[in-house]
Amino acid sequence: MSEAHARVDDELCVGTGVCEATAPDLFEVGDDGVSHVLVESIPSDRLDAAREAAANCPTRALKVE
Question: Can you give the pTM of this predicted structure?
Fold first, then answer.
C-alpha cells in the first residue's frame, strides 16, 4: 500500500475540532481557527483514525488519500 496523506481545505474548515478530538496526534485546530495536519505521511496504524476523522468532519474539509 502506498503512503496515505491528509489535507484540509481551508475554505471549508470551520474549526469544529472533530478531527483533533478523533486523532489528536494527526490533527490540531490552530490559532487561525482551522485544522492543520501534523504529519506528512499517516502511519498505517493510524490510518483508520484519520479516515474516521475525515468521515466525521461536518463540513467535509478533511480528505485522506
Answer: 0.91
- Residue bearing cell 474539509: 61
What pLDDT score does 3 carry?
A: 87
CATH 3.20.20.450 for domain 6-64, yes or no, is no
Q: Report residue 20: phi and psi, to 5°.
A: -65, -40
Q: 1 pLDDT exceeds 60?
A: no
Residue 62 · residue 35 · CB < 8 Å: yes
- Say if residue 65 is exposed, middle or buried (CB neighbours under 10 Å; 0-12, 13-18, 19+): exposed
Show me where the domains of the chain are located.
Answer: 6-64
The per-residue pLDDT for range 5-28, each reduced to its tens digit, is: 999 999 999 999 999 999 999 999
By the 8 A CB rule, do 26 and 18 touch? no
